[in-house]
Automatic annotation (TrEMBL):
InterPro entries: HAD-like_hydrolase_sf, HAD-like_sf, HAD-SF_hydro_IA, HAD_2, HAD_sf, PGP-like_dom2. Keywords: Hydrolase. It comes from Rhizobium lusitanum. One of its GO terms (molecular function) is phosphoglycolate phosphatase activity. One of its GO terms (biological process) is DNA repair. It comes from the Bacteria. This is Phosphoglycolate phosphatase. One of its GO terms (cellular component) is cytosol. Its EC number is 3.1.3.18.
Amino acid sequence: MKLVLFDCDGTLVDSVRLIHEVMARTFVDFGYKRPDISATKSIIGLSLEIAIARMQGKPHVDDEAIAMSAHYKSISPGVRDESDMQTPLFDGIKPLIETLAAHDEILLGAVTGKSRRGLVHTLEVNDFTPYFVVSRTADDCPSKPHPAMVTECCDETGMDPHDTIVIGDAIYDMQMAKAAGATAIGVSWGYASVEELLAAGADAIAHHPNDLLSHIL
């Protein structure tokens, strides 16, 4: 048996345009300049309050970051519904998930800095809900790279971290996996560079979803 835990944004779905637009509108609504998209990319994977504080150069989450996080969550559904703000699956993800789900010895899960509502939406619109047997979100655990998302998924499924694979596009995913004692596989189609993923502890790099099969099956 293996437990395979996928990050969501930048790994399953290409959501940077949506995340950046919601983030930019949040900053503007609080009197700040629109951030550059590179700043948004650098925090994808972190829990929202920590991400906003980091983008502002703050060492800790403060009351303003909490208020901006709440505002971000309040406007996100409306922005997501705009016609040019879709979050498509990366090419090859749909058949990958369907292939893995057909193997009884593989358990699939999600570990994400998204809210629970955001993850549920992503799984539902892509017909992935039946395939993912366990998940942890920013609403459930400390932010990545804390290992709790992984260890709690292991506990819930009765799996050992040594039999667990974490797949993600961010340095925080790799750091979280290694902190939990799991295997870390970085994907090059997301928002961090291959060099950054390797430096963060990636055990391997996948350049296409099909590449993951050799590391899992």
